[in-house]
Design brief:
The protein contains seven helices and four strands. The chain has about 160 residues and is an alpha+beta fold. The protein starts with 7 loop residues before the first helix and ends with a helix.
């Protein structure tokens, strides 16, 4: 096992694994907890989970790379996701995405140098009646217009 027993975040992950008596079938739950704790799944975290669950590292990586929720790159404190599903796209989500990119001076998939913002897009968030939809971390904004972008950015915790 990785010698990470002194790192409080790894300790919290280990506590979760112990509490649920995690097995291979709990891999996704453990990865979700790790993503929430660390912000992303680093090589070190991936190896640790592999060792703790007795799952080949290649299988853990396969799950991480398959699901778009997981990321192997550090993300900003505020992750801004613009829905690009059909209903949102038809109602102008592409313009909203471009406005976020313009105001934050980064492209979709990138993180600001200060690590505060990441912009990304999603295929569908399942809130078509609120289209176009933007999610910042766990907060959902509906019927967003380009003039709302600055307000949304200002509401983010810094």
């Amino acid at each position: 096992m990785c010698n990470l027993s002194q790192n409080p975040v790894f300790m919290e992950l280990d506590l979760f694994i112990d509490e649920i008596q995690a097995k291979e079938t709990d891999l996704i739950a453990v990865l979700h907890r790790a993503q929430n704790l660390f912000g992303y799944i680093s090589e070190e975290v991936l190896s640790h989970i592999s060792e703790r669950l007795g799952v080949p590292k290649s299988k853990v990586y396969g799950v991480v790379s398959f699901y778009s929720y997981f990321t192997t790159e550090p993300r900003g404190k505020n992750v801004i996701n613009v829905c690009m599903g059909t209903a949102c796209f038809v109602r102008g989500s592409e313009k909203i995405l471009r406005e976020f990119e313009s105001q934050l001076r980064i492209k979709a998939g990138e993180t600001t140098i200060d690590g505060i913002y990441t912009i990304d897009s999603l295929r569908c968030v399942g809130a078509c009646g609120l289209a176009p939809v933007v999610m910042v971390n766990d907060k959902v904004y509906g019927r967003v217009e380009t003039q709302d972008v600055a307000k949304i950015i200002n509401e983010c915790e810094v």
